[in-house]
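Sequence, please.
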């Protein structure tokens, strides 16, 4: 970071200026975020991008109201100006404030955290990255009938310092990597797509380039392309009430949309209603609602190794935690911040994060995970199912702003008869109402099938913040689910 004076001096100047201006609490985040991305399309390099962003944000609490301001100019005079501006915004906000903000009693922390990794992705030669992508592209190209092939990878490093007037001082170095492949086939009437390891840009984790190598993208390219072509002539997914087995990555998105978003306490309280919507999980349901069947257990775990929602401390200086959300099917917890947790008589569980230095922290998912069950492997679960359909890899989704009524489409499905996959079907969809759907879950595969998926593009807030979150899931079975066209 280019600064006139040390970062410590700038942070102290910001805290002192805001407090002298009347702030009862102040925090400062200094952030540098570096990203790199590569995309190969149909055997040629389509995109190679790199971006570096650095700056600071100051949040001040005055008369029970927040003010925030930030700048990319890391200079003493600018820091003082921004601190005064944050205080002025807070004082103006207090004029329209109905309820004074009270922060919880989370103790200030002095600490550091770094993402564990083996191989720095920014140090890997460009030729080696392109070799991996080109080999995956070549594998897909071996299948006649494929129209479009795409392989991509991206990396990000975020270095940030957090300090508060309470005495917190935290340094973090977070490293993220992701990669995936996608192919599509088309005829005169339709296009069919297949993705690996999951849709929406592949798999993303915190870690080093070793995670990219472990995906072995080229090993999956040919089968992926064959499935895309085969889907063109596959029969349509049937309609009706059916038993459904949902694959791990699709179930992770189901968790994201119908479990992760409705437990954000700012949505519940109406703070995000204008953009993100509200939530059916209102305060009266906490510790009372039977959210799912007794085998459904969900937690929010910011400590699990490799998760895209894994970190050391959130952007209010609260340590990463593993917090129960659903226990034996009963709804028991929200995602909270220092501002919202006291409203339900609790302390923040550390889910307040900002996507960069120039925006305020919001309540964001960490790794919201469906815990594994006792149904063994996916093969075991299929063998235990007489009639049904197995669906994998998200293609489309729709859910209302309370996160109650939903419809999902997947890239591919297979009919199940007498415990065997007997026929590929295309355009599979299913729909449901969140508590009814999770209440119909009667089997979840075990630890060997559980995978922690990364979602790098979760949107929330005004102005929009795109953030990185994670979801763990194993394949699971749901009974009496509406599949295909029906009365929704």
């Amino acid at each position: 970071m280019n600064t006139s004076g040390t970062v410590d001096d700038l942070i102290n100047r910001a805290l002192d200026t805001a407090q002298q201006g009347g702030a009862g609490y102040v925090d400062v985040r200094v952030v540098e975020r570096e990203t790199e991305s590569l995309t190969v399309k149909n055997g040629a390099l389509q995109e190679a991008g790199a971006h570096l962003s650095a700056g600071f944000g100051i949040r001040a609490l005055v008369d029970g109201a927040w003010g925030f301001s930030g700048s990319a100019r890391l200079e003493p005079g600018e820091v003082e100006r921004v601190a005064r501006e944050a205080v002025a915004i807070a004082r103006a906000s207090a004029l329209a404030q109905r309820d004074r903000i009270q922060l919880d009693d989370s103790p200030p922390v002095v600490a550091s955290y770094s993402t564990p990794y083996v191989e720095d992705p920014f140090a890997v030669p460009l030729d080696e990255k392109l070799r991996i992508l080109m080999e995956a592209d070549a594998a897909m190209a071996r299948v006649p009938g494929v129209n479009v092939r795409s392989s991509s990878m991206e990396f990000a490093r975020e270095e940030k310092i957090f300090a508060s007037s309470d005495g917190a001082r935290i340094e973090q170095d977070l490293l993220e990597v992701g990669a995936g492949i996608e192919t599509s086939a088309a005829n005169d009437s339709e296009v069919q797509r297949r993705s690996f390891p999951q849709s929406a840009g592949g798999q993303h984790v915190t870690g080093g380039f070793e995670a990219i190598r472990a995906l072995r993208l080229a090993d999956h390219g040919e089968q992926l392309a064959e499935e895309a072509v085969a889907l063109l002539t596959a029969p349509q997914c049937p309609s009706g009430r059916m038993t459904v087995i949902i694959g791990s990555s699709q179930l992770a998105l189901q968790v994201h949309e119908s479990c992760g978003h409705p437990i954000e306490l700012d949505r519940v309280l109406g703070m995000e209603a204008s953009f993100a919507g509200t939530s059916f999980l209102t305060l009266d349901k906490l510790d009372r609602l039977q959210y799912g069947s007794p085998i459904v257990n969900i937690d929010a775990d910011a400590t699990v190794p490799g998760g895209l929602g894994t970190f050391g401390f959130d952007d209010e200086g609260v340590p990463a935690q593993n917090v129960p959300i659903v226990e034996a099917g009963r709804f028991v917890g929200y995602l909270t911040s220092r501002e919202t947790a006291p409203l339900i008589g609790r302390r923040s569980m550390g889910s307040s994060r900002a996507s960069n230095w120039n925006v305020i922290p919001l309540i964001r998912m960490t790794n919201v995970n469906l815990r594994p069950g006792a149904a063994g492997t996916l093969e075991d679960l299929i063998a235990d199912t007489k009639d049904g359909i197995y669906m994998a890899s998200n293609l489309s989704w729709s859910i209302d702003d309370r996160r109650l009524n939903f419809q999902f489409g997947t890239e591919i499905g297979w009919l199940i008869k007498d415990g065997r996959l007997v026929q590929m079907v295309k355009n599979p969809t299913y729909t449901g109402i969140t508590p009814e759907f999770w209440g119909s879950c009667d089997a979840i595969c075990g630890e060997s099938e559980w995978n922690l998926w990364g979602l790098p593009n979760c949107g929330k807030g005004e102005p929009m913040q795109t953030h990185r979150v994670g979801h763990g899931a194993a394949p699971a079975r749901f009974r009496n689910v509406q599949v295909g066209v029906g009365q929704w």
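The mean pLDDT is 96.
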